[in-house]
Amino acid sequence: xxxxxxxxxxxxxxxxxxxxxxxxxxxxxxxxxxxxxxxxxxxxxxxxxxxxxxxxxxxxxxxxxxxxxxxxxxxxxxxxxxxxxxxxxxxxxxxxxxxxxxxxxxxxxxxxxxxxxxxxxxxxxxxxxxxxxxxxxxxxxxxxxxxxxxx
Length: 151
Known about the structure:
Elements: H1 3-18, E1 21-22, E2 29-30, H2 32-36, H3 42-60, H4 65-82, H5 87-95, H6 97-109, H7 117-147
Antiparallel strand pairs: 1-2
Helix pairs in contact: 1-3, 1-6, 3-4, 3-6, 4-5, 4-6, 4-7
């Protein structure tokens, strides 16, 4: 499998999603991700599907799991940011999740750099935060039962 042409196509896809247009008089670029994201609800889900293209190719090219996990987190954050009406669409211009994912993808595939300690720490921190958030209702419920003298 020739990697260079595939990377070129993915770079073009990333530029289309995150950097296709320039705001006149500035150096700020945005892409179809921000434009399609303006459609309430469905637009953000659609841009999330667009972002899956890069993630799919990373998985297919056997990028290490920790890198794929980090890319998935970037895509999820991009989706979550975009769900906030208007402010999320503006923030989406600056977050550029597809650009971040493409940089991670290229770092591993084109530059052949192994995952770094920071990759593992980032994924571990996010997983820990999600576990804490998921367990919070149960902890609060137990504290409520204890405060009521039931437990």
